[in-house]
Amino acid sequence: MEVAVRYFSRGGHVKQMAEAIARGAGVEAISVDDPRAALDTPVDLLFIGGALYGFRLDQAIYDFVEALDPEMVTNRAICFGSSYLTRRPIYILQDILKQKGITISPQAAYARNKPKELLLDSLAYFAETEINRDPDLDRLPPIQYMIRAEKRKKEEQEAREAAEAAALVAEAEAEAEQEEDELEADGLPEATEEVAADMGETVAEEAEEE
Ligand SMILES: Cc1cc2nc3c(=O)[nH]c(=O)nc-3n(C[C@H](O)[C@H](O)[C@H](O)COP(=O)(O)O)c2cc1C
User: pTM of the prediction?
Assistant: First the structure.
């Protein structure tokens, strides 16, 4: 699954959140004012975060979203944010992304001002879980989701093992074929005849000696 983490942070709180999410997702958190921030290739999942400054997000976030091609987010966007008072930064983000036609995940993450260490750890875990979440199963009640997700994981493991076994067999077959070709190329029949003749003589000599 292709994942991107984008954010804008004036004071560092949202940056900390973005970096925790990126750690869980195994990618780099990139500020939207970084020249590398634009999404040139599609991602399945976009984590995007910002904070509230005078009831608005920073203009850099609006500019990033405006320039964003909605086709670059193929599955969903998960919004995160920080403020002193309300979850408004999340709602604003969800709103502007939705207007672009991007699917919004019902999941979101919020910190009141500076995120606590515990929240940062949870964010990393949250990101990891979201990446492995199967959107096809999203509407199931939690217990059924777990059962189905476990079943799917097992099936995937079995398929991986079968593919590995098939690859080993194919590799062994290719090696055997190559050896056969090499032997043929080396003139196997003559070589074998020579060896057989030598052996025959040796056996005859030994028999004579006896
Ligand atoms: C200039 C400024 C304006 C702010 N305006 C609001 C606001 O309107 N509502 C609110 O809840 N928090 C407001 N805050 C609080 C920030 O949203 C909050 O501290 C957030 O964690 C900052 O994130 P950052 O460190 O990533 O920039 C404001 C903070 C600053 C510095």
Answer: 0.71
